[in-house]
Specification:
The chain has 278 residues and is mainly alpha-helical. It has two domains: 164 residues, no CATH class; 76 residues. Helices cover 73% and strands 0% of the residues.
């Protein structure tokens, strides 16, 4: 077969190194810089560093907390003791000699956790930051601030509202032939579980914020499935509430409903689709 060359047709220049670029080199360079990849061992090493830093932060927090441990004990126990004493004239019980000492250690550790919480959250941010883009890494300060704020709000709600009501519920079962004699260790165990539980529940807006930024959830999705969310919230409230009555269930459920509504607003403001449109 004979190839016919047309007159005036352009011939390829062997010295011409031009080539077609299907991608923007500036964007590629930016993505390469922002989306730096880490191997599995690098992730493990980074996790080890952050865990060690968290331990040291907790040690420093506990050292500070033990300085004020007596004031913290009075802050926790005196309101509960007044309710107990006014009901039956009783005091808290301890059944082993080391229980008061261990209780003091636990209260100091709890105080240390609260003091070190911003630092621990910051270490969590540093662990996930390598997988983020440059503009997302600028959210470090808001992330630490709002995670700490919501956790403390949950702890405050537990201390000032949820646990006092739970305590009064326990005291309300006394009769002429039955008296409430609580072990102080068991009471503190329930106090810590409720405080940490509400602290984690109050992180719902922050979790939704990151899911919305990743495009996993949207405000419309949360509104469409709100009825199922309400059902799940009341089931969880019924499980974790100390009583079987409607009032105790609502006491647990209403904060979660308010947080869900706030999370919908967060998803609407910071959602991925809205950010792309802007």
């Amino acid at each position: 077969m004979t190839i016919v060359k047309f007159a005036g047709s352009a011939q390829p220049d062997p010295d011409d190194d031009r080539h077609i670029q299907l991608t923007d080199p500036d964007v590629d360079a930016q993505d390469a810089d922002e989306g730096a990849k880490m191997s599995f061992l690098d992730h493990l090493d980074e996790l080890r560093k952050r865990l060690i830093a968290c331990v040291w932060g907790l040690v420093v927090g506990c050292a500070i907390g033990f300085i004020f441990v007596q004031r913290i004990q009075n802050f926790i126990w005196m309101p509960l003791f007044r309710d107990l004493h006014s009901t039956n004239g009783a005091k808290f019980m301890y059944t082993t000699g080391f229980e008061p000492f261990m209780l003091t250690m636990k209260i100091g550790a709890l105080a240390g956790l609260m003091i070190a919480l911003p630092f621990i959250i910051y270490q969590l941010w540093l662990f996930i930051a390598p997988g983020l883009y440059t503009h997302e890494k600028k959210l470090a300060v808001p992330f630490v601030l709002f995670c700490t704020l919501f956790f403390l709000l949950g702890a405050a709600f537990s201390h000032y509202a949820a646990f006092p009501w739970t305590w009064k519920f326990f005291l309300g079962w006394e009769t002429e032939y039955m008296e409430f004699r609580p072990s102080i260790g068991e009471v503190f165990g329930l106090y810590v579980k409720m405080m940490l539980g509400f602290g984690l529940i109050f992180q719902m807006p922050m979790v939704v914020f990151f899911l919305a930024r990743l495009g996993v959830v949207t405000a419309g999705f949360m509104v469409r499935y709100a009825k199922y969310a309400v059902l799940v919230i009341f089931i969880v409230a019924a499980v974790v509430s100390p009583g079987t009555d409607v009032v105790s269930q609502c006491l647990m459920a209403f904060p979660m409903l308010a947080l869900y509504a706030l999370s919908v607003l967060v998803a609407w403001i910071f959602g991925k689709e809205r950010s792309l449109a802007a």
